[in-house]
UniProtKB/TrEMBL annotation:
GO terms for cellular component: cytoplasm; nucleus. The lineage of its organism: Eukaryota, Metazoa, Ecdysozoa, Arthropoda, Hexapoda. Residues 93-127 are annotated as: Disordered. Residues 97-194 form the PDZ domain. One of its GO terms (biological process) is proteasome regulatory particle assembly. It comes from the Eukaryota. This is 26S proteasome non-ATPase regulatory subunit 9. Residues 93-120 have a biased composition (Polar residues). Keywords: Chaperone.
Length: 222
């Protein structure tokens, strides 16, 4: 997510935050596995029709897993905000350093423009105009796999698994990838404001309908 040449304290903080994000997501997956093993979700009752604890599940483990998931989801939201702020700080520092090193020479200005382009598009160095974004994220349900994966409403999608602007034809392609990737990682690249961010989504059944819990909308061509 952060360019290799953009070293410094801000980058180091972001990388540490990313490691913590991965740890939290791993723990959430572990706790969800406890619920799956008991065939319950976040909202299923833990007592039977007579008001007694259900005998078909480990009520203690399920209750503990639910509590941990709620806490971890809050931690995840907080750390995603910190990562976004950190990326903005890294970007600002990079721009500041870049501008400070600039001279009035034309070729130096052109070099700076190249750095800016690489920052906006990732490692390939290609420009990242809006026509590289083929879809956007609509609503994102709280606690959903999309939410836990870091997606936010209005994120513009540049890459979704193997789909990008050059081979995208219909949102159905994305739905097919999700349907065939339950429990598996999907790499997603989005443009949020001026920043390019990479996320890993893991489609799975959860408390609400759908495998991701978000809406994906096709962008109208320019």
């Amino acid at each position: 997510m952060v360019g290799l040449n953009m070293n410094g304290p801000a980058r180091d903080r972001v990388m540490k935050l990313m490691q913590e994000k991965d740890r939290i997501e791993s723990e959430i997956r572990n706790e969800n596995a406890v619920l799956a093993a008991n065939n319950v979700g976040m909202e299923d009752p833990l007592v039977d029709a007579d008001g007694f604890p259900r005998s078909d599940i480990d009520v203690y483990k399920v209750r503990h897993a639910r509590h941990r998931i709620i806490c971890l989801q809050n931690d995840h939201k907080n750390i995603m905000k910190q990562i976004e702020q950190g990326l903005g700080e890294v970007h600002s520092q990079f721009k500041s350093t870049e501008n400070g090193a600039s001279s009035s020479a034309q070729n130096t200005s052109q070099t700076n423009g190249t750095h800016n382009s690489m920052l906006e598009s990732g490692n390939n160095g290609h420009s990242n105009n809006n026509d590289n974004c083929f879809a956007k994220v609509g609503f994102v349900q709280e606690g959903s796999p999309a939410d836990l994966g870091g997606l936010c409403e209005n994120d513009k999608i540049i890459q979704f698994g193997s789909i990008n602007a050059s081979n995208f034809t219909d949102v159905t392609q994305l739905h097919n990838i999700v349907r065939h990737s339950v429990g598996q990682q999907i790499q997603v690249r989005v443009k949020r404001d001026r920043h390019i961010q990479n996320f890993t989504l893991v489609p799975r059944p959860w408390a609400q309908p759908g495998l991701l819990g978000c809406q994906i909308i096709r962008l109208n061509p320019l």
